[in-house]
């Protein structure tokens, strides 16, 4: 099925068919020429490699299962040629028939060329196909080239602006050992759905020196992780990603292939690992991601499914220098956004204000405890304060985190806070009007339901209750955060 999909994609039109065939034949001839002049591979090693359904992977990657020694001894070059031919005839042309005479002639030419190839050449073609589709078997040279491209991008985007001595030393081939380096910083945004977390995550990630761990728990589904075995699994994944360890997290990587934003939000990384000719399989290779992630000193991670108390282990690791932004939003705004903006909020954890505000109470208690244990490393931020004064609040936040106010961040704020794009996942809003937007949408019944479930915790964060949505103004619904709310 995968082969057929790939072939259909490549053979999408007559022009692309002929271009592909020409490239394939050129590649095969080039490989055959090189292989005849370079070191010879022993026949025994050759047969062992050919016996694998998934060809040998590079160092640091998980090795696929291989057939037994008995199967190896039976495999011979004609078997491999037969398999490659079957891919060309059956996989690419359903039913084994061609729609046009020209296509049939092109196929015959390719099949004739296959018969002339040496075994090792066929092996290279199969490995090329495998690396196109399988993240675990991507070519090592391609990985190294992508990492070099990423390094240069980071040097240009970050070092040239913030650490010019590093860029100068690189251009002039001077040693870097004495050059200033950015210290490590891992920022975790801890909140819940529809609380402004995507805006804040995109703001931080707009800094070219920040690696973005976007929604790492998305495969846990539309529920909150409050404890038990699920919390332990979530903690392990979070700690591993903060350490740039991707190996062993197949569920996460499988989800990333389905929802590519988990990787693609790192624009420099995505640019380095994906292209039209070779696809994006490299972008989901655990070895590549680990090395790419390690090139960044700073990272941001958005969590909307894990409650705050479970982030204590991350704070205890002083080498990571983890800072937590505990982001809260008026429950009325949260619940309105969940019901009026998106269609997927269909679980009690998402659509029942009792669960939302129970979690807010638990998170506030956890925040007080963590603030006492780790002074200066847990920051409480109200979405409304950021929306009303985005530039100044961003400057203040970055100062607390130890990050510079990069020009990319200024551009992001300019383009995302002055206009409304009314789509569920858009972060472009006229931010000042969003604070009381819920008042134009909530019914009196829904308002009473939310305030009845959340009145106490709303007061703790400075959110004022109202009797009606009519005539709501900012001063009627938003006050200062009581000092007592943050006392342990």
Explain this structure to me?
This protein has helices at residues 2-10, 14-37, 43-50, 69-74, 77-91, 101-116, 119-133, 140-162, 164-171, 197-205, 228-242, 250-258, 261-264, 267-273, 286-294, 312-316, 331-340, 348-351, 353-373, 383-388, 390-401, 407-416, 431-434, 444-460, 474-477, and strands at residues 185-190, 210-213, 298-303, 322-328, 378-382. The protein is mostly helical. The chain contains 25 helices and five strands. The termini are far apart. The protein is elongated, with a radius of gyration of 28 Å. A five-stranded parallel sheet has the order 2-3-1-4-5, with helices on both faces. It folds into two domains: 2-137, no CATH class; 185-486, 3-Layer(aba) Sandwich (Rossmann fold), CATH 3.40.50. It is 55% helix and 6% strand.
């Amino acid at each position: 099925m995968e082969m057929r999909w790939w072939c259909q994609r490549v053979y999408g039109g007559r022009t692309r068919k002929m271009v592909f065939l020409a490239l394939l034949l050129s590649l095969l001839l080039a490989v055959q020429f090189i292989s005849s002049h370079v070191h010879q591979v022993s026949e025994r090693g050759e047969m062992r490699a050919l016996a694998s359904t998934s060809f040998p992977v590079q160092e640091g990657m998980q090795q696929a299962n291989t057939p037994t020694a008995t199967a190896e001894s039976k495999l011979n070059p004609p078997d491999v040629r037969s398999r490659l031919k079957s891919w060309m005839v059956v996989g690419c042309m359903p039913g084994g028939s061609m729609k046009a005479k020209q296509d049939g002639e092109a196929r015959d030419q390719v099949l004739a060329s296959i018969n002339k190839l040496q075994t090792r050449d066929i092996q290279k073609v199969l490995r090329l196909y495998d690396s196109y589709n399988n993240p675990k078997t991507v070519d090592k040279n391609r990985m190294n080239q992508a990492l070099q491209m990423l390094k240069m991008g980071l040097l240009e985007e970050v070092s040239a602006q913030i650490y010019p001595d590093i860029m100068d030393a690189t251009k002039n081939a001077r040693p870097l050992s004495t050059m200033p380096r950015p210290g490590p910083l891992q920022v975790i945004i801890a909140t819940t759905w529809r609380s402004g977390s995507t805006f804040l995550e995109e703001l931080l990630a707009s800094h070219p020196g920040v690696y973005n761990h976007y929604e790492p728990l998305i495969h846990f589904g539309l529920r909150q992780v409050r404890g038990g075995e699920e919390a332990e699994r979530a903690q392990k994944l979070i700690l591993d990603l903060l350490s740039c360890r991707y190996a062993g997290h197949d569920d996460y990587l499988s989800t990333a292939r389905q929802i590519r934003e988990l990787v693609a939000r790192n624009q420099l990384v995505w640019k380095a690992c994906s292209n039209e000719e070779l696809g994006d399989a490299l972008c989901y290779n655990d070895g590549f991601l680990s090395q790419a992630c390690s090139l960044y000193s700073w990272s941001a991670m958005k969590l909307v499914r894990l409650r705050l108390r479970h982030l204590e282990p991350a704070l205890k690791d002083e080498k990571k220098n983890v800072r937590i932004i505990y982001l809260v939003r008026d429950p009325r705004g949260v619940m309105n956004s969940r019901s009026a903006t998106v269609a997927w909020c269909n679980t009690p954890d998402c659509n029942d204000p009792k669960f939302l505000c129970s979690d807010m109470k638990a998170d506030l208690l956890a925040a007080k405890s963590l603030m006492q244990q780790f002074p200066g490393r847990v920051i409480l931020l109200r979405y409304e304060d950021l929306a009303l004064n985005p530039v100044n609040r961003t400057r203040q936040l970055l100062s607390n985190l130890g990050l510079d106010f990069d020009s990319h961040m200024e551009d992001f704020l300019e383009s995302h806070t002055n206009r409304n794009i009314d789509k569920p996942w858009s972060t472009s809003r006229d931010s000042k009007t969003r604070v009381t937007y819920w008042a134009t949408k909530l019914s009196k019944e829904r308002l009473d339901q939310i305030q009845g479930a959340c009145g106490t915790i709303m007061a703790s964060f400075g959110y004022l209750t109202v009797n009606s949505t009519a005539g709501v103004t900012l001063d009627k619904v938003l006050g200062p955060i009581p000092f007592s709310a943050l006392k342990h």
